[in-house]
Write a structure and sequence with these properties.
Helix content is 63%, strand content 7%. It has 14 helices and 7 strands.
Length: 498
């Protein structure tokens, strides 16, 4: 039995102990969904549910029954939580009579099963086999020494390009990062796959930066996973994974929006066609053409034309009256907007003061951190001096210069640690007093603001809505005016009496 089979067998026994054998994912109802005012948005109340927001995954919007969720339901593309309310987004053309939110509940052992299946499906991987069997070493590559490499660097470089597991070690400054840069660049140029990992992000960036600067790679050949610490790596769209993901998400969102708009338009056209088809029920073609001929005969439809003129004039009058009311409402809204602008300026002052509190706290924290670092340096020197003084007389005599230097350095470190602690205490006291003063200013300023932050947004939204409604009313009034003019122009005179 190979190592893959042993691991897969052990994971299978683990799954059996956890009781996950044969258990399949199932759909669980999260709650009833209510349509919001925005197209494609639904709201679900999570109160009374044993499902936390961190468990929400694989969501679909469907009817109240659990049959046809995958075939008749709609996938959720976005979620946003506000307290106990969860807002989900589905395509705008979604039409469900009684919408409910469903979540695909995975069995507790599905991750272990995925790991077992993945290991069991592995092919021949020499590196994985070497690690699993504890076998290290291997043949180095036959490669020419890179320019400027000394013999040990060249040996390490060929080992990186060879087979098996190798350990490249060296003190700081011996060129390990240089070897890595050259080896990674050459492996990528050969079409090989390279995984570069380290205990710190900056170490990964330092090794990766040289490869990036050589520009021997295409976009997507190198993918920097995790938060880069070097700006040149973080801002390179051909390397930085967050920038790649952002670009792809932007493109996908644009395509999704376009498709949703097209589907909404198709649905609207389908409804229009259905309405037209319904209106054509019982259509009598001979009667239609006879009536059309009558309408096209001059002087035969005076009454209908007069009725259209009267109706158009009435609608125009109503539109003008509605426009006048909107003008009064907009005047009131402008007055409220002035109060809103003044309140926003005051709240910006409050935000600036709050940011100042944050900066003061950070400054005090930095001073305290400096004190901790100084004390840690003093403690390290003291331990080194203690170790030297604990040695025999001969060793102490040989190290007398080092001991004397450490004693002087320890004296300076103690003084620096004491000064840092005093500075930290003073900084914290100053910060506390300054924060108290700023807090009092914030409270006093907040009491003078007539509007809360929550009141400002609805007032601004009302003003914008009124302006938009007024513009729409103006367009409608102009359209009605043109319609009335056309109706008057098309009106035929009544026939003269005998």
């Amino acid at each position: 039995m190979g190592w893959r089979e042993e691991i897969a067998s052990a994971l299978g026994e683990w799954i059996a102990v956890e009781g996950g054998v044969g258990r399949q994912p199932r759909w669980q109802c999260v709650g009833r969904a209510a349509r919001s005012s925005e197209p494609g948005r639904y709201v679900v109340d999570l109160r009374g549910s044993d499902i936390g927001p961190e468990q929400l995954d694989s969501l679909r919007l469907a009817g109240p029954d659990d049959d046809g969720i995958e075939t008749k339901g709609f996938a959720v593309s976005e979620t946003a939580q506000n307290g106990s309310l969860l807002t989900v987004r589905v395509p705008e053309f979604t039409e469900i009579t009684d919408p409910h939110l469903w979540m695909l509940k995975q069995p507790p052992t599905f991750l272990i099963e995925a790991l077992r299946d993945g290991i069991a499906g592995l092919g021949e991987h020499p590196l994985a086999t070497a690690l699993a069997t504890g076998t290290i070493g291997g043949l180095s590559a036959h490669a020419v020494d890179p320019p400027g490499f000394h013999p040990t660097q060249a040996d390490a470089y060929r080992a990186c390009l060879g087979e098996g597991v190798h350990l490249v070690w060296g003190p700081p400054g011996t060129g390990k990062t240089t070897v890595l840069k050259r080896a990674i660049g050459d492996l990528i140029a050969q079409g090989r796959r390279v995984l570069l990992v380290s205990a710190t992000n900056i170490a990964v960036d330092n090794a990766l930066l040289g490869v990036v600067r050589e520009k021997r790679h295409e976009s997507g050949d190198i993918v920097r996973v995790g938060p880069p610490h070097l700006r040149e790596v973080a801002e390179d769209p051909s390397v930085s994974l967050p920038l790649m993901v952002q670009t792809r998400l932007t493109e996908a969102a644009a395509r999704r929006t376009a498709l949703e708009a097209e589907l909404v338009a198709i649905g609207e056209r389908a409804r229009q066609l259905a309405a037209w088809e319904s209106s054509l029920a019982g259509f009598d073609a001979p009667s239609y053409f006879a009536a059309l001929k009558l309408l096209q005969t001059p002087g035969q439809d005076v009454a209908a034309t007069q009725a259209r003129v009267t109706e158009a004039e009435q609608r125009l009058g109503q539109a003008v009256q509605h426009l006048a009311h909107l003008g009064e409402a907009i005047g009131t809204a402008h007055g409220r907007q002035k109060a809103v602008d003044a309140a926003k300026d005051r709240w910006r002052e409050v935000d600036d003061l709050a940011e100042e509190i944050t900066r003061v706290q950070e400054a005090a924290g930095n001073s305290e951190a400096d004190a901790l670092l100084a004390d840690d340096h003093r403690r390290a020197l003291q331990l080194r001096l203690k170790d030297l003084e604990a040695k025999g007389a001969v060793a102490k005599w040989r190290q007398r210069d080092t001991i004397t230097a450490l004693q002087d350095e320890l004296t300076d470190a103690r003084t620096a640690a004491t000064d840092a602690r005093v500075a930290a205490r003073e900084a914290r006291a100053t910060a506390t007093a300054h924060i108290a003063r700023i807090g009092a200013r914030i409270n006093a300023l907040a009491e003078t603001i007539p509007l809360t932050r929550d009141q400002i947004s609805p007032l601004e939204a009302d003003a914008v809505s009124l302006v938009a409604e007024s513009e729409q009313a103006q367009h409608e009034a102009f359209a009605l005016e043109r319609e009335a003019v056309r109706a008057c122009r098309d009106r035929r005179p009544l026939p003269a009496g005998p």
